[in-house]
TrEMBL record:
TM segment ranges: 6-27, 39-63, 83-109, 143-163, 216-237, 257-276, 297-321, 327-347, 359-377, 413-432
Key word Transport present: yes
A Pfam family this chain is assigned to: EIIC-GAT
Key words of the record: Cell membrane, Membrane, Phosphotransferase system, Sugar transport, Transmembrane, Transmembrane helix, Transport
Location in or out of the cell: Cell membrane
InterPro entries the UniProt entry points to: EIIC-GAT, PTS_EIIC_2, PTS_sugar-sp_permease
Organism whose genome encodes this protein: Planomicrobium stackebrandtii
Protein name as it appears in the record: PTS system galactitol-specific IIC component
Length: 454
């Protein structure tokens, strides 16, 4: 267990190249090609983290200035996902999430109950988070373990369902995102999009980056949009002219640099993805294999970044205007792209739909983050997290995600019975998605062919 934790502590930029290299060799890739692929993936993640760091360092102070400028006061501070992940892995339960995540994945793959091979091991902190909250709530260690397992089952089911949407919109072949923050939002976007499609006039509104650029010319360019949004945030933050201009160039830089870093990372993943496709075709005809990756690959899309930057000031004002909310958004404001990046494919890249849908999603999420704040604080104390002067803490990632509510509320109300029932329901979903549904599709295709012959 100690070695495994040491391995994970190396970080994604070191851990992923090693895993990708080993994975590529298993798939039959030549050692030289596998080594280069792993190194390029690592370099891509370094680049992505550098750009995200730029976003955090520029947007974080602007958000704090905006809060101070308008005199907003709320008693629960958003400490952000780095703190949430540290708290999750710091509990006595959290370190089990990694071996459980790998074990559940291998078991499901063995029985053909998932198509996702998850190499994004570090992000198992999302399931450690819910498990730790349940342990803080019930003091039942094994119920916390069961929560982790059931949450893992749900993420693999979501990843299988979303893979086709991800490929169609982002163009990532044989790649999916079993990500605890990003995946759940897509399943909220689906009914929202159904409603949007039935609103007269609104359903005809094209607002994807390409359509916006056609209508607005240079003003619709994603880089210019980033600069303009930076100016807006700078004005709301009360910055002086130099501060506004610096922030605008920094947000514009993020819009340009992040997609290029993602493209670099994909350069390393493409040969591995192709090798995975060939490997499965030869040994498991009729089956697909998806590589489970960090949703950081998706946040560089112009529709994601433009929508996220627009949602930032909306989020701050919602925090104050929503009655009953106690969470002051701060550290996770720069991580809003992760909350909405899988809503964007469902909304077909429509920025207006994403801003509306994402704002509603985060608005409801404030109440979840407020509700779990006492448990979040207890888990932080149990993991010896340094809270400073704060007496109540929470987070938008994963505190404002609906799965967090489900996995904490069910044990609170129904204890073991509820969690076992939920696990069986999700297991049936995996069986349907990977066994029953493909069989029905084959039968339908065979019937269709027969009718065509006749």
């Amino acid at each position: 267990m100690g070695f495994l934790q040491w391995f994970v502590d190396l970080g994604a930029s070191v851990l992923l190249p090693i895993l990708i290299f080993i994975f590529a060799l298993v798939l039959g890739t030549k050692p030289g090609k596998a080594l280069r692929a792993g190194i390029i993936v690592g370099i891509g993640f370094v680049g992505i983290n550098l750009v995200i760091g730029l976003l955090v360092s520029s947007l974080g102070p602007a958000a704090q200035s905006m809060v101070d400028n308008f005199g907003f006061e709320l008693n629960t501070i958003d400490v952000g996902w780095p703190a949430a992940s540290a708290i999750s892995y710091g509990t006595s339960l959290g370190s089990l999430a990694i071996p459980l995540g790998v074990g559940v994945n291998l078991l499901l793959l063995t029985f053909g109950l998932t198509k996702t091979l998850n190499v994004d091991i570090w992000n198992f902190w999302h399931v450690a988070f819910t498990g730790s909250l349940v342990y803080a709530l019930t003091s039942d260690f094994w119920l916390g373990v069961l929560t982790i397992i059931v949450h893992l089952l749900l993420l693999y089911l979501m990843a299988d369902v979303l893979a086709k949407h991800i490929e169609k919109f982002y163009g990532f072949q044989n790649i999916t995102f079993p990500h605890g923050t990003s995946a759940p939002s897509a399943f909220v976007a689906m009914p929202m999009n159904w409603v949007f499609d039935r609103i007269p006039g609104f359903n005809k509104l094209e607002a994807d980056p390409e359509s916006i650029q056609k209508r607005l010319g240079i003003l619709g360019d994603s880089t210019i949009i980033g600069v303009l949004i930076g100016i807006l945030i700078g004005v709301l933050a009360g910055y002086d002219i130099p501060g506004i201009l610096q922030l605008s160039i920094q947000t514009g830089a993020v819009m340009v640099l992040l997609p290029r870093m993602v493209a670099l990372l994909m350069e390393g993943l493409i040969p591995v993805s192709e090798a995975a496709g060939e490997f499965v075709k030869k040994r498991f005809p009729g089956r697909d294999l998806y590589i489970g990756m960090d949703s950081a690959l998706a946040i560089g899309h112009p529709a994601v970044l433009s929508s996220a930057l627009l949602i930032v000031p909306i989020t701050i004002f919602m925090a104050v205007l929503l009655p009953g909310n106690s969470v002051l958004p701060f550290a996770d404001l720069a991580s809003i792209p992760f909350l909405i990046c899988l809503m964007v494919p469902i909304f077909r890249g429509n920025i207006i739909r994403t801003v509306i849908g994402g704002s509603i999603y985060i608005g409801v999420g404030f109440y979840i983050a407020t509700w779990i704040a006492p448990l979040f604080t207890d888990a932080a104390i149990a993991s010896n997290f340094e809270m400073g002067e704060n007496t109540s803490i929470s987070s938008l990632i994963d505190g404002a995600v609906w799965t967090t509510f489900i996995f904490v509320w069910i044990p609170k109300i129904l204890s073991w019975y509820g969690m076992i029932g939920l696990g069986l329901l999700i297991l049936f979903g995996l069986i349907y998605q990977n066994k029953i549904k493909p069989k029905r599709q084959k039968q339908t295709a065979a019937t269709g062919e027969g009718e065509d012959i006749k």
